[in-house]
Amino acid sequence: MAENKALPRNVGIIMDGNGRWAKRRLLPRSAGHDAGMKRIIKLVKHVRQTGIKYLTLYALSTENLARPKEELEGLYSLFRMYFEKYAPQLTAENSAVSVIGDLSALPQDVAEKMRTACARSPQNPDFTLVFAVNYGSRAEIVRAANFAAELGGNMTEQSFAKLLYTADIPDPDLIIRTGGELRLSNFLLWQSAYAELYFTDVLFPDFTAQRFDKAIEEFSRRSRRFGKV
Fold first, then answer.
1. 56 near 188, Cβ under 8 Å?
2. Which CATH architecture does the domain made up of 10-218 adopt?
3. Residues involved in catalysis
């Protein structure tokens, strides 16, 4: 593991590969999502111990809502379980839970459990876990632009950023994508302007703490100049 001085403040993860993980084992896709949730639980515990302050997980994109109803119901059941059982454990240990995205399209009880977990989070947490749920970056930017139009006047990058879902969350320093695809898939497009990108062929259920540490070590070796010499 890299020394603390080289740690990213916020790491985003595009958690890809649950379905393929299940297919390779001749299991239903729901088994892959269940394995992915188990990986989240283990990974969050590990990330908290590293000293990284924010972990942002791409849990459900706006495009994912077009998936079969049975698969979505399985995902919603996993959300219910996580926000009932594990979110309270985090908040009890001075960690915050945040959810970004349009929750209005989710089942009412799922959305309510998420809002409750966020509301019960401590004000000055040691760590913040962010779930992007029914999230799409283009939709987020359009939403912010509409707010800006209502407010009137000239916007700066800083004032516009305050209208995004992530207004109180630092931009990601590192975005990791598992599963072998080489794209951002509409994840934090505004916020990731200067993020370092790390791609791995490892499917998310197999993305262990050791593999996460490998990504952090790679990040620590990069020179981030932000356009400067």
1. yes
2. 3-Layer(aba) Sandwich (3.40)
3. 16, 64
